[in-house]
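Query structure, 163 tokens:
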């Protein structure tokens, strides 16, 4: 690490701390030449491999733009989209892989998007799960209805248990 003040090619780490969200490490360094201190932030890179085989850095902005299209006309705010993108990035990073296929990013979006807005979920899922017929939509809608009924039954059971 070059010193930003005197350009000396070496530095000593004085202190290291993990960020609150655990995605980066903040290091306090000292130059042995000029004795000045400076801070560096280290993050891991996450590469998305596109269909063409080309890799590019993961971008929350691209996640937001893709989901924004599915949410067009729906009651979803920009803050909701930002939180969804953060949740997707955290889930991908927790898998521990340095590279991920673009299609896997799309699939990782489905869970958080389903919780956010079911109509937007169906729009997005129709692309990423390659719906080809109306039966594909019917199957997805039936699964959503079954899950909603299960959640409703579970909530009612918990409510009865509290009484």
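Result returned for the query:
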């Amino acid at each position: 690490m070059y010193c930003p003040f005197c350009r000396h090619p070496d530095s000593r780490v004085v202190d290291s701390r993990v960020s609150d969200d655990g995605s980066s490490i903040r290091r306090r360094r000292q130059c042995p030449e000029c004795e000045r201190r400076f801070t560096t932030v280290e993050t891991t890179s996450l590469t998305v491999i596109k269909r063409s085989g080309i890799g590019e850095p993961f971008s929350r902005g691209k996640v937001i733009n893709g989901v924004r299209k599915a949410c067009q006309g729906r009651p979803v705010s920009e803050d909701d989209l930002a939180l969804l993108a953060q949740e997707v990035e955290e889930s991908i990073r927790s898998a521990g892989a340095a590279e991920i296929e673009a299609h896997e990013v799309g699939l990782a979006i489905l869970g958080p998007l389903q919780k956010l807005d079911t109509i937007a979920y169906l729009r997005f899922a129709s692309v990423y799960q390659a719906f080809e017929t109306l039966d594909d939509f019917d199957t997805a809608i039936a699964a959503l209805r079954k899950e909603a009924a299960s959640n409703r039954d579970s909530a009612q059971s918990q409510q009865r248990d509290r009484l």
